[in-house]
Amino acid sequence: HNSAYFEHSFLAREMGAFLVEGRDLIVEDSYVYMRTTGGRQRVDVIYRRVDEDFLDPLTFRRDSMLGVPGLVNVYREGNVAIANAPGAGVADDKAVYAYMPALIKYYLDQEPLLGQVSTYVGLRKDDFTYMREHLASLVVKTTGDSGGYNMLMGPFASKKEIEAYLAQMKKAPGNYIGQPLIELSSHPTYVDGRFEPRRIDLRPFILYGESIRILPGGLTRVALRPGSYVVNSSQGGGSKDTWVLAPRSA
């Protein structure tokens, strides 16, 4: 079961691509093949939707049942392209977010046009001290996880939960960041036969090539559980259609 299966199947259908699991692929003679009812078919490009740790049990986690044994070696030899290649998620480290204004200034010599949420990085001693003393009012996340996992919602956590989380933080402070709780927008949502308010956020998409183009619309995620701030589908969240209305004619 994968909470993003609908998204995977939709993308595969729209792109005219095959949606497969690791067991549908095999490596032979330094190439990747897909099992089909008509025999094996060579694969040239893989759009990866599996966590890197589970991609290839011969290279990463040996207990992985999701990956393809030998895939990384084929990739190294240049016989298959992997979109979301191994190592491509370095910027997904949540601690990088805290340094974005400095990165923009250093590489572009510009100031950010948009502000961002105050972020405390456990790797910095003063930041970790602040996080430790204000856990009850912060949202704390591990830098390498996603999908709403291993997160502490301080304002809604019990004293026991906060103490247990702090004990884990002390073992590896650099693996954590903290941010204040941000109030999300609320939107009428049809739940169990009636409309109720649910918190939402909007994820825009930007295409970058010869020019930069912002797509009209985006992904609206909704926290379906009453009172929740967590919109991740893996934590019971959902999505909404996003409509962009054309400007009214004069």
Describe this entry's structure for a reader.
The protein contains five helices and 15 strands. With 250 residues, it is of the alpha+beta class. It folds into three domains: 5-88, Rossmann fold; 94-180, Dna Ligase, domain 1 (2-Layer Sandwich), CATH 3.30.1490; 185-240, no CATH class. The strands form five sheets. A four-stranded antiparallel sheet has the order 6-9-7-8, covered by helices on one side. The termini are far apart.
Beta content: 25-35%
From the spread of the alpha carbons, the general shape counts as: globular
Instruction: Report the biggest beta sheet as strand number plus sense, adding barrel if it closes.
Output: 4 strands, antiparallel
Which stretches are low in confidence, meaning pLDDT under 50 for 5 or more residues running? none
Strand order of the largest sheet: 6-9-7-8
CATH class of the largest domain: Alpha Beta
Share of helical residues = 10-25%
Distance between the termini: 51 Å
- Domain count: the total is 3
Structural class: alpha+beta
Integer average pLDDT: 91
The assigned CATH architecture of the largest domain is: 2-Layer Sandwich
Strand/helix succession: HEEEEHEHEHEEHEEEEEEE
Number of strands: 15
By oligomeric state, this entry counts as single chain
